[in-house]
Amino acid sequence: MLKHLGKCLLLFISFTLSNPGEVLESYNEVHDRKYYEQRGDILWEVPIHKKMIALTFDDGPHPKITPQILDLLNQYEAKATFFVVGNRIDKNTDIILREINEGHEIGNHTFSHAMFNRNVSKQKISSEIEMTARKLQEAAHVSGGWFRPPGGYYNDRVVAAAKEQGYKVVMWSWHQDTEDWKRPGVKKIAQKVINNARNGDIVLMHDFVHNSNQTIEALKIILPELAAQGYQFVTISQLLEAKHIEEMMNEMK
Q1: How far apart are CA 116 and CA 167, in angstroms?
Q2: Which residues pair with 145 in a beta bridge?
Q3: According to the CATH classification, is domain 44-252 in 3.20.20.370?
Q4: DSSP string, 202-245
Q5: 58 among known catalytic residues
Q6: Are 94 and 140 in contact (CB under 8 A)?
Q7: Is 224 helix (H, G, I), strand (E, B) or coil?
Q8: Given 62, 104, 109, 206, the catalytic residue
Q9: Annotated catalytic residue within 58, 59, 180, 207
Q10: Are 202 and 171 in contact (CB under 8 A)?
Q11: pLDDT for 252
């Protein structure tokens, strides 16, 4: 038995040395959405009966765009989740603090907006998450929470690296990707959100799009329209908390 195990180990070591890429691929396996949702590893949306939607903004903070978005959110008593890029934090600490003070939520969006395709090592993923986590702790005493990988790249390594640093991976509702980074036009962005609005949606937008204020102008349409329809704009954590309360109430019936 021991001889057999020893031979297997030698074969594995030999295969690893001669085929490192194949071993990397097997460890870096990507599963479908259902797999990660059932395990509670990645969040796309939160099905709920209440008319609640979570607006999320990636790639900031931006010294001009983000404050204007915050002004609009404040006008409609809306809360949101901002996924910040670490290398933007030092020059925009005041904006991070404003987001927190006004009841919004801060998420981690890597340090340099790195794309985690299948060939990126776990060490690189962990480093990108850790550097931003450290900046957020230093700037605003924020730790853990939500992590969103740029470009929506996810796999086992991303999930594991995020978990190890106290984060849960969160994506967005597939029917609520505004693609505002492509600058498709104010009307198109607004209609995407309004026409597809469902309870528990997580909407993807950006508070930094080069040479564009389309997201700001679209919010001027989205916020009053959905508010008139009875929707409440909440953070991702608030959405989950409401879902938890809803489930508790149903169990008590």
Answers
A1: 16
A2: 167
A3: yes
A4: EEEEES--TT--HHHHHHHHHHHHHHHTT-EE--HHHHHHHHHH
A5: yes
A6: no
A7: helix
A8: 206
A9: 58
A10: yes
A11: 84
Q: Are 199 and 50 in contact (CB under 8 A)?
A: yes
The model's confidence at residue 222, banded by pLDDT at 50, 70 and 90, is very high
Residue 47's pLDDT band (boundaries 50, 70, 90)?
A: very high
Number of Cβ within 10 Å of residue 176's Cβ equals 22
Place of tokens 């794309």: 115
How much is the average pLDDT of 57-85?
A: 98
Told to judge if 210 belongs to the known catalytic residues of this protein, a careful annotator would answer no
Taking only the tens place, the pLDDT of each residue in 112-126 is: 999 998 789 999 999
- Contact, 60 vs 95, CB < 8 A? yes
Which tokens hold the place of 139? Answer: 């700037």
Percent of the chain at pLDDT > 70 equals 89
Task: Tell whether pTM > 0.90.
Answer: no
Tokens of 140: 């605003």
